[in-house]
Each structure stands twice: as structure tokens, then as C-alpha cells.
Amino acid sequence: MEQTQVRRPPRALSPQRLVLFVFMFAALAYPWVFRLPFQRRLMVVVLLYAMLGQAWNILGGYTGQVSLGHAVFFGIGAYTSTLLHLKLGVTPWIGLPAAGLVAALVSQFVGYPCFRLKGHYFVIATIVLAQIVQALFTNWDWAGGALGLRLPLLPESLLNFQFFSTKLPYYYISLALLAIVLAVTYLLEGSKAGYYFRAIKEDPDAARSLGVDITSYKMLAMAISAFFTGVGGAFYAQFVLYIDPESVLAFKTSVLIMLIAVVGGIGTLWGPVLGAFILIPLSEFTRVALGGAGRALDLVVYGILITLVAVFEPRGLWALGERIKALVARR
Amino acid sequence: MLQQIPQVVLSGLLNGFIYALVAVGLTLIYGVMDIVNFAHGEFLMLSMYVVFWLYTLVHLDPIFSLPISVLVLFIVGALTHKLVVRRVLKAPMSAQIFATFGLMVFLQSAAQFLWSPNYRLIKEPLLSGRISLLGLSLGKPQLVAAVGALLATGFVYWFIERTETGRALQAVAEDQEAASLMGINSDRIFTLAWGIAAACVGVAGALLANYYYIFPTVGTVFVLMAFVTVALGGFGSVPGALIAGVIMGVVETLAGLLISPAYKQVVVFALYMVVVLVRPQGLLGEW
């Protein structure tokens, strides 16, 4: 009853749907138009980060709990599938959901102390916990220590989750993962849990007084968010075939995941996708154009962007787009 | 190992005064306007580079470039308020976090872009060598840094508690609206608070530059420590920051000796979690 009221059934071919279909077609056709390995690789990274950004958004955007420690879930996902494969010979196809489950489980342990804190204390606690986890993995020799883990090269096949001659399968897998996260977010938006998430963000005290079990719903948002971040980490491990604490658990990973959502638009379905489509290519091109890693020019631009967004449009570029659309419509 | 403990506690104590001074800047801004400055560590990094370049380019020793560093950082802090922070005062908390956070990413990567990620060291500062005291060996630069940090912390405390402007600062922290009714220009107070907070790391950076490596991410090392210090001491409390800074310094070096150097930060961070959970307002938190 309450759900049908809120979401009007869309007409058979509303403009929104048309746009959606065009985008879906473009997404499916992209690797056939752009065949160069680097073009396909770039888009795999874009789709992966769009997915990670949206996963962050479920907790940080919809529920308003800004986490700067999502590298924990990303890294634990990457380590879970990699260790399962190396130590027990488990196929990455099982490793992928297992990574999500372990990350979600860890998130509940992390969430319990963190959610007793509010505001800045919460943000700093997520940073601090991520630092602890990184230090533990760096000193954990069984899990590769500071050197990290290398996945053995296997004959390329869908079963082995390794592809060398073409990046095509990676592309469609990352596209499917993004589609799943977007679908889950869409369903959440209209669900009871989704309303509770937003209530917690807007006014936690009011939500509590109306009988919303705030901590449980924060934990739920964290579990969903961590699950998909963990799956993303496992996909990353399969894609790059090498992980170490510096590449999957470091603070900069947490920052990038958050950035995608913030710049694109927190608390929106398409914001993180927009964010990934802007930030990832931007980073690649500044790197290519100015040559040489370690110069960090992409981060210089990121830093300016995030401050500008915070000052002028805290709801992100997606909201800026909506504002322009409203302006045009008024004319 | 046991006979090493006094030596280790002493060097932890010296570090602790530096942590305290860095934390004072954070706690001041938080106390006055409820904002966490994520770029605080990068301010420290900037001040170290100011001192480094003055040394490298015009051969000015860190002792003499300290006042320049303080002045530069005061301006950086005041500008940060005028250009960025002032615009997000009424924005949701997430926007406030992102504003200074973006600044942190920008400053850190700009330093890396301009000055390369290389580790630098001031090779022959005037302050060098060690002295012996009651059988304990102390680095002179470390000792001077600790004393300087303690003096600077004391000065900030004196300024806030005993001067007219300091009382105005407290008034704004207490109730901005009531303060403006009394004729206090809160924007000027905020600018001043940012200037002083950044000047604190201007002092800390210049003192550290005598013996510490200088690199683009050096701020992260100290600012994470400062976050913990501030939370432990209580957001907004200068004496709290001092006590907590000393505790952090000693705990860190002791953990390095008794457990393992690899885990010394883990112990400190674990302490943070315990403190904020057991006593969310910190040791001396009041605001």
C-alpha cells in the first residue's frame, strides 16, 4: 500500500525509461565499438568503481554514516577470495560471494563500536580501524605480509575466472556486478529499510522516537554496503591477480571509494555512476598526459573537485544536473 | 629490556609534547566551531617544507625560519577559513567533512607533484648532537622541540584564558548568537582561531624539521596521532590535549619496546577506540 503510493507506475515508454534503455544498450555495445585493450580495461575500472561508490553510498549517502574506512571491506574481500583460492583451491566464483559474506561479517564487528559514536568521532573511528586492519595484514606473514599475494596464472577460461587474450569477460562481469548493486539500491530506495535509512540520516532522534531501531538499521546498511564492497575487492583481485596491503587496504582506497559517491552525488541512484565516469578517466588521462606515476596530479584535481563540490553543491554533480534541468524546464 | 624503559619513556614524553601541540590546533578549531580540520596534518607538512626550502635555498637555519613558518601558516589557516570553511558553516556535517578533506587531498598531492615524494632531511642544522642527563641520552633537537612545543601550548592556553580576545573566542564557542549580541564579530574570531591553529603546527613543523624526515605524507603520521590525542583529551580542551599528547607519546614508544615496533600505532589506535567508547567526551572534554 505505502509503496504503490510513493512510486508511480511508469508509463510504458517514459523519457526516463528511454534514456535508461539507451544507456543499457550503450553499456552492452561499448566493448565492441572500443576494442583496444586499454579502452576495455579503463571501462572495467570505471564500472568497478561505480559499483564500489554505490556500495559506499548505501551507508554513506542514504544512511548518512560517512565512512573513511571502506578499504577494510574492499581489502578483506580481495584477501578472502585470494586466500580461499591459494590455500584451499576454492574457485573465485565461490570466492566472490564468500568475500562479500566475510566483509559483511567483519562489518558487523566494526559497526558495533563505531555506531556508538556520532559525527566526527564516527569518521575518525573508521579511519583508525582501517589503519589497524592494514597494520595487521602488513605484519601477517601467513597472508603474504607486506609483500602481498600473487594469484597463480591458470589457463584462461570462464571457470578459472582468468582472461588474457581479451578483457571482454571482465567487462561483462563488472557490468553485471554494477547492475546488481544498482538494482539492489533501487529496491532499497522504495523499501521500508530504505525509508528508515533516510530517516536516520535526516534526523536520528526523531527516527528513534518513532520507534526505528537505529543501530540495527545502521548495521543493516553497513552489512549491505560491506558485502558489495567485498565482492568488488574479490573482483579486483581476480582482475589484477596481485594484491598487497598497500594496494587494497590503504587509506587512499577508502578515499577514492568515498570520492566517487561524493562528487557524483550522495544519496542518489546514478550519482556514483556519474562520479566514476568522471573521476576514473580523469585520473587515467592526467596520468597518461603528464606521464609517470607518483606525480599525483590526478589527486590534485580530485582534491580541488571535492572541496568545490562541498562548498558549492554538497549534494554532488548529479544534483547540479537536476538543478540545470529544472532551470531549463522553467524556460 | 627493563633498563631501557626510562630512556624509552623519556623519548616518548618528548614526542608527546609535539603531539600535544599539533592536537591543540585541532582541538581549538573543534572547540570554537565544531569542525574537524582534516587538512591539519597537511598544514604541518607545509610548515616543514617552508623551513626546508628556506634552509636549502637561502641557508636559513630552522631556528631562524621558525617565525617565518609561523607567519606563513597563520596566513594559510586564516585563508582556509575565509575561502573554504566560512562557506560550509551552515552546510550539513558531511559537506564540512568533505570541504577540509578535499583540501587535505589537494595539499598532500600538490606537495607530491611539486616537490616529489622523496624523503628530505635538513642535513646540518645548528641544533644537533646529544646530551647526557642522569645517565639518559637525549637528542638536542628533540629536547628543544619538546620544550618549544610545551611553551607554544602554554602560550595558546594563556591566550585563550587570560586575554580579552581569548575570552571572546570562548564566548563564541559557548554561544555564537549571544556573542554577536555582545558585539563580537564571530567571523573574525573564527579567522583568528584558524590562524592560531595553523600557527601551532607552524611551530611544530619548524621544530620537527630539525630532525624529522620531510615528505608529502608526513602530516598523516602526526595528524592521526593528533586525532587520537584530541579524542583522548576531549574535543575542545587545551590542557586535555597536553595530557593526552604525553600519554600517547609514552604509550607509543612503550608499545614499540614491549610489543613490537610494527604494532606501536595499532596499540595507540586501539586506545582511541577504547577511550571514545568508554568515555566519549575524553578525559577533560567540556564543550
Quick synopsis:
The complex is a heterodimer of chains A (331) and B (287). With 331 residues, chain A is an all-alpha fold. Chain A has helices at residues 2-6, 15-33, 37-62, 71-88, 92-114, 119-138, 168-190, 192-202, 204-209, 214-240, 245-248, 251-264, 271-290, 297-312, 317-330, and strands at 149-150, 242-243.
Please give the structural blueprint.
The complex is a heterodimer of chains A (331) and B (287).
Chain A: H1 2-6, H2 15-33, H3 37-62, H4 71-88, H5 92-114, H6 119-138, E1 149-150, H7 168-190, H8 192-202, H9 204-209, H10 214-240, E2 242-243, H11 245-248, H12 251-264, H13 271-290, H14 297-312, H15 317-330
Antiparallel strand pairs in A: 1-2
Helix pairs in contact in A: 3-7, 3-10, 3-12, 3-13, 4-5, 4-10, 5-10, 7-8, 7-10, 8-10, 12-13, 13-14
Chain B: H1 5-33, H2 40-58, H3 62-83, H4 93-115, E1 130-133, E2 136-139, H5 140-162, H6 164-174, H7 176-181, H8 186-208, H9 218-233, H10 238-258, H11 264-278
Antiparallel strand pairs in B: 1-2
Helix pairs in contact in B: 1-5, 1-8, 1-9, 1-10, 2-3, 2-4, 2-8, 2-9, 3-8, 5-6, 5-8, 6-8, 9-10, 9-11, 10-11
Q: Which key features would you list for this structure?
A:
heterodimer, A: 331 residues, mainly alpha, two-stranded antiparallel sheet, 15 helices, 2 strands, globular, B: 287 residues, 11 helices
Number of strands of chain A: 2
The number of helical segments of chain A is 15
The secondary-structure element order of chain A is: HHHHHHEHHHHEHHHHH
Question: Strands of the largest sheet of chain A, in order across it?
Answer: 1-2
Largest sheet of chain B: 2 strands, antiparallel
Q: H/E series of chain B, N to C?
A: HHHHEEHHHHHHH
What is the overall silhouette of chain A?
A: globular
Describe the protein.
The complex is a heterodimer of chains A (331) and B (287). Chain A is mostly helical. Chain A has helices at 2-6, 15-33, 37-62, 71-88, 92-114, 119-138, 168-190, 192-202, 204-209, 214-240, 245-248, 251-264, 271-290, 297-312, 317-330; strands spanning 149-150, 242-243. In chain A, strands 1-2 form a two-stranded antiparallel sheet. In chain A, α3 (37-62) packs parallel to α7. The longest helix of chain A is centred in the C-terminal third of the chain and has 27 residues, at 214-240. The longest helix of chain B is centred in the N-terminal third of the chain and has 29 residues, at 5-33. With 287 residues, chain B is mainly alpha-helical. In chain B, strands 1-2 form a two-stranded antiparallel sheet. In chain B, α6 packs across α8 (186-208). In chain B, a hairpin with a 2-residue loop joins β1 and β2 (136-139). In chain B, 72% of the residues lie in helices and 3% in strands. The interface between A and B is large, with 43 and 47 residues.
